[in-house]
Design brief:
three-stranded antiparallel β-sheet; 9 strands; alpha+beta; five-stranded mixed β-barrel; 34% strand
Length: 210
């Protein structure tokens, strides 16, 4: 896997369908205004990445794609660039993403809700007042909130592909393996709303870097 790009607070992502310029299969490209891109077989969980020989998946982001194709003997002509980044679609999508960085809406957990998301980790804390309290709960309290065993972290995830960016403050079990330096990295995640009495949290059940 290549390097994972770092996203800024004003990054905006968008997705569009196209055909793989290597195998011709219908794929989905998720691009970011910072220049990174990821290729998926389909959108939605489990977000299967498209890993053709010569174009790869997570190791190919933005203009790195061009370098890899060139290294594999592909002449970088205008037609190749149009296939890698369809100009008409890119222009149309970019024009709709001129949003202020602070245009955010926090999403509150509600009983029974589950979400799958492609998001940027805006903050990641291995210890907060909330995690200290959750980590100190006894067996009964932990079972009411369906907390797994092990240390719990707290993260704020930003879904930046909407007309208004959505933020999810969630509890992330350390055992999921999210690295401590994941801030400003993109992740694929699954969250479940856990509610007990008047207390509600988003609990991450799966999370991985893209």
């Amino acid at each position: 896997m290549g390097s994972i790009p770092t996203h800024g607070p004003c990054c905006q992502t968008w997705a569009y369908g196209t055909k793989c310029w290597h195998c011709g299969k219908a794929i989905n490209v998720v691009r970011c205004t910072c220049g990174s891109a990821v290729l998926f077989e389909s959108l939605g969980w489990p977000w299967p990445e498209h890993n053709c020989r010569g174009i790869g998946g997570t190791e190919l982001r933005g203009w790195v794609t061009v370098d890899v194709l060139r290294a594999n003997g592909v002449a970088i002509e205008r037609t190749v660039m149009q296939k890698v980044f369809p100009p008409g679609e890119t222009k149309r999508q970019k024009s709709s993403k001129a949003l202020p960085c602070e245009n955010m809406k926090a999403v509150q957990a509600s009983a029974g809700e589950q979400v799958t998301l492609l998001a940027v980790v805006r903050d990641l804390f291995t210890e907060t007042k909330r995690t200290d309290w959750l980590n100190s709960l006894g067996t009964l309290g932990a079972s009411l909130l369906h907390l797994p065993k092990g240390r719990l972290w707290q993260a704020t995830l930003v879904v930046n592909s909407k007309s208004q960016n959505l933020t999810y403050t969630c509890i992330v079990p350390e055992r999921l393996g999210l690295p401590r330096d994941a801030e400003n990295k993109m992740v694929l995640g699954r969250l479940e709303a856990q509610v007990a009495g008047g207390y509600a949290i988003w609990l991450a059940t799966d999370m991985r870097l893209v």
